[in-house]
Amino acid sequence: MPSRDFENTNGTVFYHPTIGGRIVGGVATTIQDLPWQVAILRNGAQICGGILVAPRVVLTAAHCVTLRLFPTLATLNVRTGSTTHNAGGTRVAVSSRILHAQYQDCETCSPDYDIAVLHLAANANISPAATIALWDDNTAFAAGVVGTVSGWGATSEGGAGSVTLRRVDVPVIGNVQCRNVYGSIITTRTICAGLAQGGRDSCQGDSGGPYVIQNRLAGIVSFGAGCARAGLPGVYASIPGYRAWIRQNAGL
């Protein structure tokens, strides 16, 4: 699936993550270390990540589960409790999906409001899978605070995928600094994270996966320009910024 682009206020074109992606600069890990990580499957193939936040509720990015990708829920499943995305754990059907009403699914639309809830057809909270707590409304993360992002995929931009779950630690970058790069798309609904010199990042197929600070969910992998490029941090949908919406649509 091709990248979708948008222009920031300076007219610079940046890119949405596409389904398929990678963790850059990270290390192999296990589901026991990150038991809330789930794989979003289309016809059995992993395309995105997600986060188990209740026994039958998954949070992910809206762009991972659009009507364009999934005209019917019959092709949409999640796999929980497995270090590998293609076997093991528990595979569960999705009974309903809720995309943020203000998310726009088009090739040149802004990637704002990139959050969705999946309600599952059965309990997915089966060991080693486990749910994760959420940060509260209006929580502010200081620049430099380190969080962990995880997912399946290659270890370099454009590389081949990884079957094994990987993780990488990246520090928060303040919104003022991040807005200088991405423009007005950076708001209280987003968190930016990365290294000034690049080298560590989430990337396309990690879309919808967790950005975790102090063992609580802080963000959802949303978009960025390339992968792990210097001066171009990853951008995450902010859990505190969407907390009221999550309560309304996920009951949490």
TrEMBL record:
PROSITE patterns named in the record: TRYPSIN_DOM, TRYPSIN_HIS, TRYPSIN_SER
Q: Where are the transmembrane segments?
A: none
UniProt cross-references to InterPro entries, sorted A to Z: Peptidase_S1, Peptidase_S1_PA, Peptidase_S1_PA_chymotrypsin, Peptidase_S1A, Trypsin_dom, TRYPSIN_HIS, TRYPSIN_SER
Domain Peptidase S1, residue spans: 23-251
Q: From the Swiss-Prot or TrEMBL record, what is one GO molecular function term?
A: serine-type endopeptidase activity
Keyword entries, A-Z: Disulfide bond, Hydrolase, Protease, Serine protease, Signal, Zymogen
Q: Which GO terms describe its biological process?
A: proteolysis
Q: Which Pfam families match?
A: Trypsin (PF00089)
Its family remark reads: Belongs to the peptidase S1 family.
Return the protein name.
Answer: Trypsin
Instruction: Provide the taxonomic classification.
Output: Eukaryota, Metazoa, Ecdysozoa, Arthropoda, Hexapoda
